[in-house]
Design a protein that fits this description.
The complex is a heterodimer of chains A (about 190) and B (about 450).
Chain A: H1 3-14, H2 34-43, E1 46-51, H3 55-66, E2 71-73, H4 84-87, H5 91-94, E3 99-103, E4 106-108, E5 114-117, H6 118-121, H7 126-129, E6 132-138, E7 142-143, H8 146-151, E8 160-164, E9 169-170, E10 178-179, E11 186-192
Parallel strand pairs in A: 1-11, 2-3, 3-6, 4-7, 6-11
Antiparallel strand pairs in A: 4-5, 5-8, 9-10
Chain B: H1 2-5, H2 7-15, H3 19-41, H4 46-61, H5 64-77, E1 81-85, H6 88-101, E2 106-109, H7 113-117, H8 120-126, E3 130-133, H9 136-143, H10 160-171, H11 180-197, E4 200-203, E5 207-209, E6 214-219, H12 223-230, E7 233-239, E8 243-244, H13 249-261, E9 269-273, E10 281-287, H14 291-295, H15 311-315, H16 317-322, H17 333-343, H18 360-364, H19 371-384, H20 390-403, H21 406-422, H22 424-428, H23 449-456
Parallel strand pairs in B: 1-10, 2-3, 2-4, 4-7, 5-8, 7-10
Antiparallel strand pairs in B: 5-6, 6-9
The chains are: A alpha/beta (about 190), B alpha/beta (about 450).
Chain lengths: ~190, ~450
């Protein structure tokens, strides 16, 4: 018998009597204001900028480039950098990346988590390997909590998707919080109000 | 039998010899527990969430074979390669064969308690593979040739001076520079190179979703993502109990996990893997290793609901004051103490006794495992199976004998009181009476309560 069937047979033999799954569809007592999101992001060391058009981001990208930074712009509304070649880039290719600008699909007010997937990152390494990450979201895509978040996305629509909340961090040395473990050293969120 | 039964107590005695360090450990974990409380009380529906999580897990366990099959079917459709391992040896062999086939010599690994349980690192190293743990805490203990002392905070038993020494020795950092920021950035540079060099990454799995055939990995550091996205091959190792039925159930567990673990509202990264990137591969190894046996133990199967948040360790008065290494197993603390005897009753017979049965673990458990009840039930089971030390057994038998005979009880009580007054040193000897080690003996009364009552009743 295959390992698979050995395991499944033993489970079948040993599992308890069927227990029904209770009906569950989240809680509806949540608030999803932009203020709550900004406040939450602040607690996880993330700065927020609110604007009603995308021009400030374009200005920022131009400035960073002028200063000599390696910048990757993946925002379609700002003539995103070439995507075809990006897919096959390796960690060594991307190691020098200073700034990455990526679109986030939804943002969760209760914990500051922002959802992005393959269609946004093109190469899965980008939001992790860059030194500084800038995520752009729209106010209308703010949801209250994780229940609402999972109700509004399909986790398998793309091959990979991630909720990012804040810059990478660790407290593994004496519980002292250090920002910038393996991923970005900083996260900035730009909220577009239309 | 009796040598293993003493292990936790003996190890703990060594650990607490450093009083300052013990106090620091105790206070630090209590602080983490406090952060958990703050996070939990901020969510008005917290108790409803716990009940829901518990129901989802209980339902899943009662239907586990079908959910695993559903997960496999969908994962295969997603282009994920699925392997099945009945035990730790099979798991290690499968992982090694994938590495060997790809002709790889160096791999990176993010945190996975399952691979610790299976002793994967030792196995791969014996087979000539360089294994680099990439979680900061795990890298620290790996350099020191130790095992993690806590399932979420692997290096919580160490002080920054220890880390500084270790990094000075292995990474050439400045001697006596104890600044966590400095040490962390040294590790960042060191591990960044390892990520770039390695073409195979191993991760654990926090949740596997039957409905979609994908899985979720949670980290704060971003090491699982740095490793897997840099590599061409990703191997994800999961216990059979990691399955949840549907995508929407992730909402429940992602809200509970980090709040219970560290008091964060969610981990920095919650990564969902469904299909490999172009020209790359994802393998999932589904491991039983005793879990299906535990599923058959009515009193103990609930332990399989565990989502490895570590809240029970942070709150446990015994864990906080004895350190994770005293438990001599990868998954330490209260939850480890109810999982371990299932794997090896003889070897881990001491662990269910390393508890005050105060019940705090059960109160903080996000999936409502009756941890302290199970600790108590394991004690009975272990006594029944003969895995207790001879003097505990002798003591219990004598107690039962004396307590069942009132005259003998009164006589023994009187004798004991005389002895306690006349030769107290016999009871105060730490070798004859281990109970006395960290306690004061009260003065023995002249009379028993019964005698006092007879005298004083009107």
């Amino acid at each position: 018998m295959s390992n698979r069937n050995i395991i499944l047979d033993k489970i079948k033999k040993n599992k308890p009597e069927f227990i029904a799954l209770s009906e569950f569809n989240g809680f509806d007592n949540q608030q999803k204001s932009i203020d709550l999101l900004i406040e939450t992001l602040k607690t996880i060391k993330t700065e927020t900028t609110v604007g009603n058009n995308i021009t400030p981001i374009q200005d920022k990208i131009n400035l960073l480039k002028k200063e000599g930074n390696v910048v990757l712009n993946l925002l379609d509304e700002l003539n995103a950098d070439e995507k075809e070649a990006l897919i096959l880039k390796t960690a060594a290719d991307l190691a020098s990346l200073d700034y990455a600008f990526i679109r986030g699909q939804i943002a969760v007010a209760e914990n500051g988590a922002i959802w992005l997937s393959d269609k946004n990152t093109i190469n899965r390494l980008v939001p992790f390997i860059c030194k500084h990450l800038i995520l752009v979201i729209e106010e209308k895509n703010i949801v209250a909590d994780m229940h609402e978040a999972y109700a509004s996305i399909n986790i398998n629509e793309d091959g990979y998707g991630v909720f990012i909340s804040g810059p990478s961090k660790t407290a593994d040395i004496e519980q002292s919080l250090v920002i910038g473990a393996h991923g970005p050293l900083s996260l900035n969120v730009f909220i577009l109000q239309f | 039998m009796n040598t293993t039964a003493q292990k936790h107590a003996t190890n703990a005695a060594t650990y607490i010899a450093d009083e300052q360090r013990t106090n620091w450990h105790d206070e630090t974990l209590w602080f983490v527990r406090h952060k958990r409380d703050l996070a939990a009380t901020k969510v008005p529906e917290w108790e409803a969430l716990r009940n829901t999580a518990s129901n989802i897990k209980e339902h899943t366990l009662s239907n586990l074979d079908l959910y695993l099959a559903e997960f496999e079917k969908n994962a295969l459709q997603n282009g994920i390669i699925v392997h099945w391992a009945p035990d730790a040896a099979a798991h290690n062999q499968i992982v090694h064969s994938i590495i060997k086939e790809a002709g790889i010599k160096q791999i990176v690994k993010s945190k996975s308690m399952l691979t610790e349980e299976c002793h994967l690192n030792e196995y791969l190293i014996q087979n000539g593979i360089e294994v680099v743990d990439t979680d900061l805490g795990e890298r620290i203990v790996q350099f020191r040739k130790e095992i993690p002392s806590h399932i979420v905070l692997p290096a919580i038993h160490l002080k920054k001076e220890d880390v500084s020494d270790t990094f000075h020795q292995h990474l050439g950092t400045e001697k006596d520079n104890n600044d966590p920021q400095y040490l962390t950035s040294a590790a960042r540079v060191h591990l960044r190179n390892k990520f770039i060099e390695s073409s195979l990454a191993i991760t654990g799995v926090n949740f596997a979703i039957a409905e979609t055939g994908g899985f979720v990995v949670c980290t704060n550091e971003g090491n699982a993502d740095m490793g897997t996205h840099s590599a061409n091959i990703h191997i994800a190792c999961m216990g059979i109990e990691k399955i949840i039925p549907q995508q929407k159930h992730l909402g429940v567990f992602t809200r509970l996990l980090a709040r219970s673990a560290t008091g964060q509202a969610i981990t920095t990264y919650t990564s969902h893997f469904h299909r490999p990137q172009k020209n790359k591969a994802i393998h999932v190894v589904i491991v039983d290793n005793g879990r299906s046996t535990q599923l058959g133990r009515k009193d103990f199967r609930n332990s399989l609901k565990c989502i490895r948040c570590g809240a029970c360790s942070n709150t446990c008065p015994v864990f906080r004051r004895s350190g994770g290494h005293s438990y001599h197993i990868a998954v330490a603390g209260p939850i480890g103490s109810i999982l371990a005897p299932n794997i090896d009753m003889k070897r881990y017979a001491d662990l269910p006794f390393a508890s005050s049965l105060c019940g705090s673990c059960s109160n903080v458990c996000p999936v409502k495992i009756d941890i302290h009840d199970q600790l108590w039930k394991w004690r009975q089971e272990l006594m029944k199976q003969g895995y207790s030390n001879w003097y505990k057994k002798l003591m219990m038998q004598s107690m039962a004998f004396v307590l069942s005979k009132p005259k003998l009880y009164r006589f023994t009580g009187k004798t004991a009181r005389i002895f306690l007054r006349t030769v107290p040193f016999l009871f105060q000897s730490k070798s004859l009476n281990p109970w006395y080690k960290n306690r004061e003996f009260p003065a023995a009364p002249k009379q028993s309560f019964t005698e006092w009552y007879k005298q004083n009743k009107k």
